């Protein structure tokens, strides 16, 4: 039976005026008069169902009408019929059975997303969905119809049927999970994530009910079977969960009810991300949620706690707790460390103060136990879980319980173990639960009252470790405040407990202040020495594994021990020296001695300053004892490790920290005896070259007035001098073939090390025995005197520079420069003894001139400085004897001027490669008789060209030096000086600007001596040698170069003033 449009309108008006309510109400009233008569009541309900079926038949035709207005009116009538006050579930059931839901779904499918039809259809379907069982198959069929509608309503902010649409899809996903395909999951989640993203400011996009349903639908999707096959779902869920939390945080004061739903989504999304921990998208989902918690949720929670309701606080705690329980990678551990670094224990007890309910107490203590599990591992938080029901909510009450005698009371014992664990864990992160004085007093009371139980009872070793670590921290704090008293008896008992109960420092985390306090206690030295030996025996991977937990807490490892040893206020260095001496004197195992030597070496590598304290506390005596009194010293492994340690000590220790006792002299004599014996018998082996490196460092320290006696014994060791002389002569005899012997060959390596020893010998001579070495003998080829000190003649050095491999050329050039420098000093002090053959000088100069354009700028600079020194020997009249017919120097200077004056060449040569030639030019300009051709080379046009090519950015100290000498030699005119002054002023401003912007950083060079090869040792010695050289070839660091440049500019200004005065 069909009804017309007018009839539909009439029925709608009647429904709005309550006609259906009154009609059914009369029936119900009459039924109430006979409510005891079940038969009559059944008939009335049957009549009502019949009426509903009649209504359903009547509206089917209008619902199928092609007129959208009729459809809309009929849908409105249906909505009014179902939503009246006396409507019953039976009527909805009947309408669904009569296929009205199918009709509505069909209208919705064909509606083209017209707003009026969409609104009325969704409202009717929402009411029909209350008939769960009969509606379920209809909803499954109409599910595909809802997806386009979801897209439509999601794009319209505050669309009135957003909640109904999401609610219907949620019911379908929950009741019919098998209907979802991968594409459905991706499609729905993308739409919902888009809605949440639009809602990011909390004011636009959706109603609170819509937000709640969106979160619920996302949770339902991630629990569906198809979610894991949806490739983009994890990424979409990542955005959705982040936006949901950020939404709620921004509007918490207006809509706090939404917060729990966003937390639920966050927690379930994290659990979903943990299901496939190796998948990249799942890892990104977990990381995103952790980042949201760390960056947004946790900071907000810590500040908003006082304005939150208990359920909300519990929700946040539960979410955090769920993350901690997922032990799949290091990220949850990082989150745990962030919580602990935020004074989480203090905050947790603050929560208990605001919300003292039992469920809050349980949640706080359970989460605390999980934090301990994450931090310490192996279910370490179990004591807190066991005592959770007995633990008080007030930290002061906890300290009271800690300070009472347990008397075999299991509850008290359980609580005290949990309280110690809480105090210990919180202390690692500087989280103070109570006043330091109260905590220390409670700890001491606990030790004094329960010492028998702790010593002879069932106390675990972990309890003793925790007690020692916590007690050490609060004693350290008491020491700093000078106002907190302590109990010497409690301290004595604690130390006794630590020694009797196998206290293991390596396996526990400890606050650095606590660790340092323990290393300051002399009574603990024996026990700590045992712990250090354990560390020595650890494998390298374990020993080097640094476990940081907060800025002040860590385990005892190489880094921590190195910091303690380098400090002056504890027994760290003393303990290491004592341990090594004890192992040597008591005949310890070779493995223990080697591991102790390696640990000390690693400590010096980690913290070079530790070598100062080790030397001050007698490491030299321990090494001497190892050489003289231990049979292990002769073992190859022990011997090599000992050499490496000695090298590390001398390479990092400050000279003033080296004592002048006989131990280092004895060690050095043993080293040289071994060196001479092996070199004579078998040549230069690995150990021998390492000893050469050690001797170099000893000589280096003598220049700072340390180890003078030891250095003298090295310099004057005749057997060593003979071996070195023989080796150098053999190398020089190879001629051009010497080029093939680089540092990779035995000949090349030994040659480099012997040259290094020669260099440091030259540096040491004037400090060890000033005036007793006559180096002019090394310049005279006709001298038949036997050399009695470590040295290499000048002509041999020239051969090595000319024929040697690049590393040999480098070290030999440094040696020659140092030798000529010392000879120049002798020439100034004793000019009457200075006499040198001009032919010999010509050959020397020829070699040096040929190296001015060598590719290694350091070699070229050394040779140019050597040439400059020779030019300065005025007594020999070098300009007349040597340069009278030599055009090579003129060629060098002319090429220099051309390269500096021509723009296209200057841009390539200004920075570095002009430096050697500049020093030669300066030396020539300083001669009493300047070569006449110099004035034609440095004419006005050339000087003008050079000045034009200079700028504040490419100016070097060498160029300022050249202009300074040109000025004093009369080659510069007034206008050129004015231009240079302006240029130097700009350069000053530039340097000062750089200095104000750049932060000064200190770089500590660490030496890493590989187990095989001597490359690192050689490189270290060469760097040390280079650092002592003249400014022109020192480090090219900007700060050094700028300092030298400013000094040269200042000297130029002074010379101008002197010229003006003159």
TrEMBL record:
GO biological process: meiotic DNA double-strand break formation
UniProt source species: Daucus carota subsp. sativus (Carrot)
Signal peptide positions (record): 1-25
Record's protein name: Protein PRD1
Record keyword Disulfide bond present: no
Keyword line: Signal
Ion transport is among the record's keywords: no
